[in-house]
């Protein structure tokens, strides 16, 4: 394993919630080095230090936020052109990622997109769920989906990786083991009720997410853009109702499913254990997780209970970490041939690094 910080990393959207977490994890990573941080060309935060926006990171993240105009992006490309391996993280709005990702891919550079710009394989869904027509329709089915517990084998030597959405991460981690083990009835439509902290809406203030306005509310019933993403990845119809509540971090998803007649608790335990026993970021719990068990951590906590043929699975993650930034670092580690937990877990747990 390389010990030097010799893999340059760039973050677009660095001033946002996902971006600042990426910057922090890269700075603290033993092998990645922070090369540059970008915001939009017109950003009111351009040329400030990231630590000006987040004073708790004074001394750690005193990096300038570069405005992403054409000249600065061309300069970045020329800086990265000679590197052996480099990573560009896009923690930017969906349409911006869609527009810029292909122009950043280059020999020895992998672009990891945290937005939904490339998540859906069916381009016809983009106008309805994302509000723009996809210009790279032919590419979509070849772009690996960065859910490492399921797709680690498919991430290396790729120019562009598309990271899952936050609700889809929590949902798939709960549903996929049961689909793989063929324990769900053919008719079962998983019903997902998920509650997210308000950081899921991003950093820019909005009336609907202000402290006095927000309590706990369902939103985007039947039309949320994560609905087709979850269906695509679990291979069956689901019913998904997102909620947002007045806490800052985390998602707790409660998922109701029907298993086949005669299915035992042992079979369900086995479905989860066989998939996740060697996965360092999944914790199979003996009691229902709370949001605060996972907030500010890179873990997905799972718990289930069976009553006859009715199964409830609870899945909890930090939306900004396992739902976005730490998951991107997990993927980046895998892409670079490192232990997936490097920089995220205690060193004693990442000794198997290549
Ligand atoms: N927050 C979460 O829980 C999750 C977020 N994601 C995804 O990650 C990405 C970032 O999310 P999040 O950090 O929450 O968002 P924020 O709103 O907190 O941050 C967005 C970042 O993008 C920059 N930005 C905004 N508009 C543009 C533009 N036109 N061109 C370039 N940069 C721009 C912003 O800076 P400025 O406006 O100053 O330029 C800011 O740095 C999004 O795609 C989101 O969908 C994925 C999963 C979970
Ligand atoms: C609470 C809240 O508003 N959550 C966001 C989803 C979080 C997220 O960022 O997901 P994407 O990567 O798909 O954008 C929403 O519902 O739009």
Automatic annotation (TrEMBL):
Positions annotated as active site in the UniProt record: 166
Keyword flag NADP: yes
One protein family per Pfam: Semialdhyde_dhC_1
Group of enzyme by EC: oxidoreductase
Catalyzed reaction equations: N-acetyl-L-glutamate 5-semialdehyde + phosphate + NADP(+) = N-acetyl-L-glutamyl 5-phosphate + NADPH + H(+)
Domain Semialdehyde dehydrogenase NAD-binding: 8-158
EC number(s) given by UniProt: 1.2.1.38
Pathway(s): Amino-acid biosynthesis; L-arginine biosynthesis; N(2)-acetyl-L-ornithine from L-glutamate: step 3/4
4Fe-4S found in the keyword field: no
Subcellular location: Cytoplasm
Highest taxon of source: Bacteria
Keywords: Amino-acid biosynthesis, Arginine biosynthesis, Cytoplasm, NADP, Oxidoreductase
Molecular function as annotated in GO: N-acetyl-gamma-glutamyl-phosphate reductase activity
Task of the protein: Catalyzes the NADPH-dependent reduction of N-acetyl-5-glutamyl phosphate to yield N-acetyl-L-glutamate 5-semialdehyde.
Stated family: Belongs to the NAGSA dehydrogenase family. Type 1 subfamily.
PANTHER family (alphabetical): N-ACETYL-GAMMA-GLUTAMYL-PHOSPHATE REDUCTASE, CHLOROPLASTIC-RELATED, N-ACETYL-GAMMA-GLUTAMYL-PHOSPHATE REDUCTASE, CHLOROPLASTIC-RELATED-RELATED
Name of protein: N-acetyl-gamma-glutamyl-phosphate reductase
Organism the protein comes from: Psychrosphaera aquimarina
Gene behind this protein: argC
